[in-house]
Amino acid sequence: MASSHSTADAHGHGALNRGRLPGSEHINHPNPGILTVIYFALLGLLVVTVGLYSVDLQKVIKFVPGINLIVALIVAVIKAALVVWFFMNVRGGTRLIALWAFLGFIWLLFMGGIFMDYLTRHWVDQAGWQAIQRR
Amino acid sequence: MSTSPSLRAMEANYVPAQAHHGAEQELFPQFEDIDQQNECYVVGMWTFLVTEIMFFGTLFLAYAIYRTLYHEAYLDAHHFLNVFWGTLNTFILLTSSYTMVMAVWAAQQAKKWLTIAMLAATIVCSFGFLGIKYIEYSTKIHEGLFPGYGWNYTKALRILEEEHGGGAKAGGEHGTAAEGGHGTAASSHEGPAAGHGAGHAADYSEIQPGAVTFDRAPKEGFNAMTGTVPETIGAPVLSAEATREETRGRHARLFFSIYFTMTGLHGVHVLIGILMMAVLIVMYLMNHKLVRDYIPTELIGLYWHFVDIVWIFLFPMMYLIS
After folding, report:
1. Could you tell me if the ipTM is greater than 0.85?
2. Contact criterion met (CB < 8 Å) for B9 and A14
3. C-beta atoms of B309 and A130 within 8 A
4. Do A127 and B46 touch (CB under 8 A)?
């Protein structure tokens, strides 16, 4: 609560005290050193991505179908996470910014769940269909 | 007691804001303090980026579904994309993201000329990206891979086989793509193919879309029956191979529709980014009031990193299907 000599109203608005008000967090900025490290990490992951293309992991790990795709996607997600966390400075940002950044991808997951329905709707081949198509 | 406390506080807000990492930030009256103002700008930009995630997300999901349904055709079609150009473009975009983040840092430190230099470097990288995209697009349109009037998968397959040697990979590795219809064609053209390997490109303009001849009779399965569909239907009946080839062509066309849509949209985003960075540079050169604050550079940086993220996913999904 504001004390009697404060200029702030009951909600704390207009406080001349420029300290940290509740709800306004400070945004920290990264220094160039860490950004350079992240840049080279991203380049390293790019090499991994391209290298994965010529390696058939299926021969090594037989139990998981489509292991190459899964690993490639994991690498891509790590790259994207590095960019979001450091380059887009969610790391130094406030909780609200982190929530916003996170929500976008959560919504995408929801949409993906809805889209999965399409996988149950196959084209049904019928006898003579190809011939009719040619007409 | 002439003015209310909050009004007095608003007047107080017009006092020049405290220096922030060297950059001068003006506090606008609707905000409590500079931290709230900065957070508000950044969250606003992220709100836009969330809509962008949804926008590109639908296309990624469409891609995922068709890749699951027509995996074989996607495997074949991705051989038309050049991994070297794709890797180079990824490298260029990552570098541009780095120069952009350095531009933001320089803006925070109020280093005007470093900011301008880094923004200019980002623009140079973007033009490099678009230049490579132009090379890729024109090659594909020339080969008949643009899913419009010029679509000619037969021609594209022939070019892939004879010029890039990728046909052997597509056919041999994955079984069926070029084997059926084009196996014979490729072998009969072996002489000329070896001949023009060192010289100029052959003339493929004669190849008609869908003009493939098949010398194999359908042997088994449902397609063996359609090979002998009764004449009462009254239409020319394709052999099983030809039908398969046609279907694969259609699925490949789907791949290229998604490819051109997604990379095209991404390219438009790159173009918009170039435009905004150019405006920023002009504003810095003018010593414009708005860029005394680092926030405009920061927000355009956020946009640029998003464009980078889209490409981070596009590259392995389009170029590196295995």
Report:
1. no
2. yes
3. no
4. no
Tokens 């219809």 -> residue = B181
**B39 → closest Cβ in A14, A56, A94:** A94
Tell me: pLDDT of B180 over 50: no
Instruction: Please check the confidence at residue A5 and state whether its pLDDT lies above 80.
Output: no
Interface test with B, best of A50, A57, A110, A123 (most B CBs within 10 A): A50
Question: What is the chain B residue with the closest CA to A77?
Answer: B313
Which of B8, B25, B33 would you mutate first to test chain A, the one with the most A CBs within 10 A? B33
Of A83, A96, A125, the CB nearest to B43: A96
- A73-102: b (≥16 Cβ within 10 Å) or e: eebbeebbebbbbbbbbbeebbebbeebbe
Contact B306, A90 (CB under 8 A): no
Mean pLDDT of A104-120: 86
pLDDT tens digits for range B229-280: 444 444 455 667 777 777 788 888 899 999 999 999 999 999 999 999 999 9
- How high does pLDDT run on average in chain A? 78
Query: Chain A to chain B, count of Cβ pairs less than 8 Å apart?
Result: 187
CA B37 from centre of chain: 34
| pLDDT tens digits along A11-68 | 545 444 445 555 568 888 888 999 999 999 999 999 999 998 888 877 777 777 778 8
Report the gap between the CA of B36 and the closest CA in chain A (Å): 5
- DSSP category for residue A1: -
Contact criterion met (CB < 8 Å) for B222 and A125: yes
The mean of the pLDDT values for chain B is: 77
Q: For the whole model, what pTM was predicted?
A: 0.76
